[in-house]
Amino acid sequence: MEPSLPTTASPVAIVTAASRGIGAAVARELAARGYRLVLMSRSEGSLRLADELGGVGIQGSITDAADIDALVALTIETYGRIDAVVNNSGRYSDILQHHLEKLPMLTGSRLTLEPNDVDDLLGIPDAAWHAGLDLIMLNCVRMARAVTPHMLAQGGGSIVNISGMESVQPRLIYPLGPIRLALHGFTELYADRYGRAGIRMNCVLPGVMENASSSDLSITGAIPLRRYGGLGELAKTAAFLLSADSGYITGQMILVDGGLNRGL
């Protein structure tokens, strides 16, 4: 059963970590498709982008349940419904840098080979693992708690979680990446539980995108398509999974990585 959309207005979408990068690209793509937007980020960037795109914004953190509740309340107060949600956490390594002082640089060899790094995997403190779980997986659980009652009441909806390719092929370059597997498990459980109500949940797994911090040209040689992924391409994938065009897709993990990784 597809979401019951209003006949007189465009669908409404929430996008988190929307001030830049993937979140901003998704917001722009959805705006171009006629969605009415509610954006949130830790900075004021989401407020500026929301104003530019004709939506509304709020400053807050996805790790704070009160901020997520305020985001959902603002959406219902402004538009009266929630048709789509994109759970994006931004560059989690930046947010957790106070726990992880050093991360290996992204290079082509580290993408194609088992890296022979001297980084101490077992030296990652418990605080980093807990913070990673809070940021990567529990934020999606909190959002689901907040939006699901509204989607149930209106007859459906669609949720896309932005995950990462490091869940498919763990690499030391992304030491907290395996936490994303918990998100994938939750996505499958949610899809099973709420599919009968017309609510779908899927994950998009970005590869090395054009906003990557590394400038090592050997990286593209490791990618079958021989280039970085475009943020616009990723945004279109998320928009597809939110749309009726993907109405029979739920509980799936979609790689957008130029063919770099295989299998889920």
From TrEMBL:
<dbReference type="InterPro" id="IPR036291">
    <property type="entry name" value="NAD(P)-bd_dom_sf"/>
</dbReference>
<dbReference type="Pfam" id="PF00106">
    <property type="entry name" value="adh_short"/>
</dbReference>
<dbReference type="InterPro" id="IPR002347">
    <property type="entry name" value="SDR_fam"/>
</dbReference>
<keyword id="KW-0560">Oxidoreductase</keyword>
<dbReference type="GO" id="GO:0016491">
    <property type="term" value="F:oxidoreductase activity"/>
</dbReference>
<protein>
    <recommendedName>
        <fullName>3-oxoacyl-ACP reductase</fullName>
    </recommendedName>
</protein>
<comment type="similarity">
    <text>Belongs to the short-chain dehydrogenases/reductases (SDR) family.</text>
</comment>
